[in-house]
Amino acid sequence: MRRKASLILLAFAVFFAALSPLLRWYAFPRLAEVPANTYQDMVLEAKDATLLDYGTMKARKVSKVTIVQTLKGDVQAAGRIGRTAGRDVVVWDGLSYVQGPDGKMVSKVPERYIFDAHTQEPVHATGESVDGDPVRRQGIEFKWPFLTQKRDYRYFDAQARVTAPIHYEGTRDFRGVRVYYFEQTVPWTQVPFPRTMPVAGITPESVARTGTTRWYTTVRRFWVEPVTGAPVYGEEIHREELRGGTLLGGREKVTAFAGHVKMREDYIEHTVAMVKSNRTLVLLMTSYLPWGFLALGTLLLALSLSLEARGRRPAGPEPAGSSTPQPVTA
To answer: Is the C-alpha dihedral spanning 277, 283, 285, 289 positive or negative?
Structure first.
């Protein structure tokens, strides 16, 4: 009976020991993915900013500039592109909407971001764009890969339509969450005007005819939770200028926007809580369950060997006087 129980325990020990690496190295890369139907919004603010008054073409100080960023998953497009690409794909339709202190629109820039649901690598397909211009992204945008590493990544800048390194600058604590801090500096670069301008009748084409150009620089900072790859906080030190041309009335340049853009407090709290919840789910597959199964397999193996050893132990000598007496005959 002990031998049979020992074999059963040994079988379970082998099963759980084999399941541990399979869950971590086989199942996790295939099951962990960004949902195709994601919808999220984010509000950022630049207080005491500088903003261009297009009526007078002069820069002025304003109390606040608000940037509303939304990301909406297109499930149908993801399925169609995924079937063609032969892998799981996510399609995000994003919109960056900037408004001044009076609530009026300053600019709005839509973009379509297509990427692999598991690795977050860009997937090139028809429709990949920024403000209606076709682009071919290299590197990540918005989200880091699951199990982010302590190294530099390539990050796509939607304003300049270029990819540049974003540098790992160390591990920090952000409101009780262990995060990796990344920073990217985009030097002064000429960028296109938004297709939707804040003044009716003015278009990028009409501005281009004046000879005036738009330039941009930023210092981009992200605090990324490494297990999920999700930023819990982000900010930019952002500057834009208009340079040259007849539109500026002989001036060399004028500030179009300058400010320190930060996430609004209520969105910080919401993001931290959401990332903490998702972090637990990822850790179940990468740490808690694999190590738990390995420990359980080791325990079952020890029990199996213990039962086997007890079953093979030789019986002790019979006590004296225990033998049956033989009958005596004449």
So the answer is: negative
Mean pLDDT of 131-157: 95
- Tally of structural domains, the chain: 2
Alpha-carbon gap, residue 116 to 121, rounded angstroms: 5
Residue 94 in any domain: the answer is yes
Cα-based distances in Å from 292 to 30, 141, 262, 277? 20, 34, 41, 20
Q: How far is CA 251 from CA 162, 208, 213, 245, in A?
A: 29, 16, 13, 8
Domain membership of residue 116 (yes or no) is yes
> Which residue, 317, 304, 327, is CA-closest to 15?
304
Instruction: Give CA–CA dist 318/316, Å, rounded.
Output: 7
Q: Is the pLDDT of residue 195 over 50?
A: yes
Q: Does residue 16 sit in the same domain as residue 40? A: no
The one-letter amino acid code at 208 reads A
Q: Does 208 share its domain with 300?
A: no
> Domain span at residue 42?
32-263
Q: Tell me the pLDDT of the chain averaged across its residues.
A: 90
**Same domain for 301 and 182:** no
Q: Is there a single domain that holds both residue 103 and residue 206?
A: yes
Report the distance separating Cα 133 and Cα 129, nearest Å: 5
Residue listed under structure tokens 């007849």:
246
Residues 171-176, mean pLDDT to the nearest whole number: 95
51, 196: one domain: yes
The Cα-based distances of 259 to 34, 36, 56 in angstroms read 32, 33, 20
